[in-house]
Amino acid sequence: MSSTARIGLDVHDVKQLFSTFDPSPFHEFSLNSTAAQYIASQAWYAKRDAKLEIALSIRGKPAPPEAVERLQEVMRAHFTRLATSEDQNFRQLLRTGVTSLAIGLCVLAFCTVLSRGVDNSSLPDGWREGLRDGISVFGWVANWRPAQILFYDWWPVRRVRNIYRRLAEAKVVAGVPGKRTAAADAVAPIDTMPIEAGPT
After folding, report:
1. pLDDT at 186 > cutoff 60
2. What is the tens place of the pLDDT at every residue in 96-154?
């Protein structure tokens, strides 16, 4: 049975959670960037199998039903949009990794053939060995970027996408701020957050 991770939001006015200026066509479904990043960062530290729940309070008191319903609607639209965008980034990253790997392997094969040709040439020993090793190293370096993408770069993007999906499905409830929650306008600086919640 999965546990529930509660993220507390205590604000002076529920309107401060929403964007006050947004030139995009999604104005009515945008979270304030600081609040969105706080929520996403709190979700980052929650257990991966835990259901997320947003406890909304206004000045230490449970938020009224209309505020809870409004935040639920906005969060669902906001994080669904971010999850879709992050999924596209994830797929594009994998395509880039596969394409780069194909190019890297071709370069490596060419460099291997070329280094063997140099090894069988009549160049002086020092020149022959240096040129052969340089070509061989170049062939392997050409595969550094695809290896980085396919071994390391994809999983943080996938994790962020999954967090956005969980937040889109998170339930918003009326609650009071607990010991481990903070006001949405009194969170850590944005550049200390582990992930971004996207432009709003």
Report:
1. no
2. 999 999 999 999 999 999 988 877 777 776 777 888 888 889 999 999 999 999 999 99
CB–CB of 191/159 below 8 Å? no
Cβ(87)–Cβ(45) under 8 Å? no
- Furthest-apart CA atoms within the chain: distance in Å: 86
Of 153, 157, 145, which is closest to residue 101 (Cα–Cα)?
A: 145
Distance between CA 111 and CA 84 in Å, rounded?
Answer: 40
Using an 8 Å Cβ cutoff, are 164 and 83 in contact? yes
Rounded distance, CA 146 to CA 12, Å? Answer: 48
Q: Could you tell me the two tokens for 75?
A: 């969060």
The torsion defined by the Cα of 99, 83, 162 and 34, in degrees rounded to 10, comes to 120
8 A C-beta contact, residue 145 and residue 138: no
| Structure token digits, residue 31 | 């979270």
Q: How far apart are CA 9 and CA 39, in angstroms?
A: 8
Taking alpha carbons only, the member of 71, 86, 77 closest to residue 26 is 77
- For residues 141 and 134, what is the distance between their CA atoms, to the nearest angstrom? 10
- As a whole number of angstroms, the distance between CA 99 and CA 198 comes to 27
